[in-house]
Specification:
Distance between the termini: 37 Å
Strand order of the largest sheet: 3-5-4
Shape: globular
Helix content: 55-70%
CATH superfamily of one domain: Oligopeptidase f, N-terminal domain
Length: 604
């Protein structure tokens, strides 16, 4: 049983490192810089791994051990600084530390280049011969093979080094600028008869009062429009930098690199989107039923998160302690290990969930591999959606927990598989709550949350993908204006939502407010969410078909496989399914269709 609440809502960072303003932390930063630059200097002289020479192999073994150590330290410093920056968005001192870590990017790039070009010099046969001769290199054979393939996305070494140096004040600076702009933004909303200024993460769009939802939506849009020019500059230059490099590399298009980073085949992505296009029309039945319950002809954008007007209005509220207990209980029923892990993250203060001003928007889970811990950031606002977000982020943390004893380089997994673990955790919570629900109204509310997630992943994320695909194509001819970004955003939403919302239902400022477009480290931060959602639904469908007790271990083995296999192989080896064929995706979408049918029946 979960321990007695109240549970802490602020995280423990002090046990991870000294405070960023302390002399001790400055010493950590200085030591890291010295060791990083020293190892990068050594890397410049690392001989290619192109033959089975014992001395060369020994040098590589020593170098990769040092690389694992410096990577662990850098990952933890990045995560620690990022946690402080997210919790205190206007802290200039921490922002300067973020910039300082970014300035070290060229040295980290030199290390990556040394590995990738050193491996590229070896033929596949030569590399396999080396891997057979070295036990330590053989243990990380998948990572070495993957690093060799990443050399295809690299310019010549001198150019790549220069590009990394320019990126500090280029693409990554634009990403940091967006963080500062969005962190400082305030939205004026009405609360208890008074106008108050709130951070974007504090503004709710799920009020039972439609006039309040509308006012919050319009106030939010008005505030974000004040940042339109700056954000258009940032988006133009982030995408423009990438496109320039892609052109120099001779890549097929702007999706080649994102697919490679996700260890995913293009025909898998195509199969997924085809299935979504073929099947998501069923969500229109959900829209119609929900609009009817809300007393509307059609839903607008501000109605998508609206609670259903059923039962007691307080039934849709879930305080933090209750939400934590529901998550622990649901995860424990799936797997005792999963439940105990969730309890640990909550009780041991791995989570920052407090609803207060000055925090950055959004949520994330970040890892501290040396300490075998994670930290979760979000703003919990007492809703079903907040509880789902918390489950989502704990799912990420559990993924890292399962991989914690693997070699560092096999603890890394692509974003699409990361989002599978997190959305699977949401599925576990949702299905357990649905089974345990005691009334029609409660079932309706749970199904509404589940289907709202379906809308997010099959329509909202699809709109982001269509938008990003279109603006990358147009960006090759020159910069886009804020007005053009807004126009493309609305066009993409109408396509993705099957033109199903009302005339006032389209959010033309979504390209400004969605921080995922401005993440400079990863391109196309969208389709992995839909992939993860559908893969997790398909896996949960499999779980219901398996004999009791067998699937949790299968799932755990799948999480382990995400660190040392490509996406398609991880699924095929763990579950025997082919992601390039429509069958698996349709199995996932059958779950969505079944939920829509249940919702319609209960809605009457």
């Amino acid at each position: 049983m979960p321990p007695t609440p109240p549970y802490p809502q602020t995280w423990d960072l002090d046990s991870l490192a000294p405070h960023p303003s302390s002399e001790s932390f400055r010493q950590l930063m200085d030591e890291y810089r010295t060791d990083l630059t020293g190892l990068a200097d050594q890397a410049d002289h690392l001989l290619p791994l192109g033959n089975n020479d014992p001395e060369t192999i020994k040098n590589w073994e020593t170098f990769l051990n040092a690389l694992a150590d410096i990577t662990t330290r850098g990952t933890e410093l990045d995560a620690f600084i990022g946690c402080h920056a997210a919790a205190d968005a206007n802290n200039r001192e921490v922002q300067q530390l973020e910039a300082e870590m970014s300035s070290l990017g060229p040295h980290r790039a030199r290390l990556a280049l040394a590995v990738q070009f050193g491996l590229q010099a070896a033929s596949e046969d030569q590399l396999q011969e080396v891997l057979s001769a070295s036990e330590s290199l053989g243990r990380i054979s998948y990572w070495l093979t993957d690093q060799r393939s990443l050399a295809l996305l690299r310019l010549p070494r001198d150019q790549e080094t220069l590009a990394a140096e320019l990126d500090v004040d280029g693409i990554h600076a634009w990403g940091r600028l967006y963080d500062r702009v969005s962190g400082a933004l305030r939205i004026t909303v009405m609360e208890q008869g008074e106008l108050v200024d709130r951070s974007p993460s504090q503004v709710q769009f799920d009020s039972a009062d439609r006039s309040l939802r509308q006012n919050n939506y319009y106030s939010s849009a008005k505030a974000w429009r004040t940042a339109a020019d700056t954000c258009a500059d940032a988006l133009n230059h982030i995408s423009g930098t990438r496109l320039t490099k892609y052109r120099r590399l001779g890549l097929e298009d702007h999706l080649t690199a994102p697919l490679h980073y996700n260890r995913m085949q293009r025909n898998t992505l195509d199969a997924m989107w085809r299935a979504v296009d073929d099947r998501k029309e069923v969500l229109l039945d959900f829209f119609s039923a929900k609009a009817r319950l809300l007393g509307l002809d059609k839903l607008d954008w501000c109605d998508l998160q609206a609670p259903l007007p059923i039962g007691n209005a307080d039934e849709s509220a879930v305080d933090y302690d209750t939400g934590c207990n529901l998550i622990i209980d649901a995860f424990h029923k799936f797997s005792p290990e999963f439940g105990e892990f969730a309890k640990t993250t909550i009780v041991d203060r791995w989570i920052e969930a407090e609803n207060r001003e000055g925090k950055r928007q959004g949520g994330f889970c970040t890892g501290f591999p040396g300490r075998k811990q994670s930290r979760i950031f979000m703003t919990y606002v007492g809703t079903l959606d907040s509880m789902s977000t918390l489950a989502h982020e704990i799912g990420h943390a559990y993924h890292s927990h399962v991989l914690r004893e693997r070699p560092l380089f096999l603890q890394d997994y692509p974003m699409n598989l990361a989002e599978t673990a997190s959305t699977f955790a949401e599925a576990v919570l949702g299905e357990e709550r649905l089974k345990a629900s005691s009334s029609s109204n409660e079932k309706l509310a749970i199904l509404d949350t589940m289907l709202s997630d379906s809308v997010s992943f099959l329509m909202n994320i699809h709109a982001r993908f269509i938008f990003e695909d279109k603006f990358h194509i147009e960006r090759t001819a020159g910069e886009l204006s804020p007005e053009r970004f807004s126009q493309l955003m609305v066009e993409s939403q109408k396509t993705a939502y099957l033109n199903a919302l009302g005339d006032d239902g389209w959010n033309d400022t979504f390209w400004i407010s969605k921080l995922h477009f401005y993440i400079s480290s990863l391109p196309f931060y969208n389709f992995p969410y839909t992939f993860g959602y559908l893969l997790s639904l398909g896996l949960y469908a499999l779980a219901r078909e398996e004999e009791a007790g067998e699937f949790p271990e299968q799932y755990r083995n799948f999480l382990l496989a995400t660190g040392d296999r490509c996406t398609e192989a991880a699924v095929a080896d763990s579950f025997g399914h082919d992601l390039t064929a429509p069958d698996f995706w349709n199995r996932s979408l059958d779950v969505v269709a079944d939920r829509v049918a249940q919702f319609q029946e209960l809605a009457g």
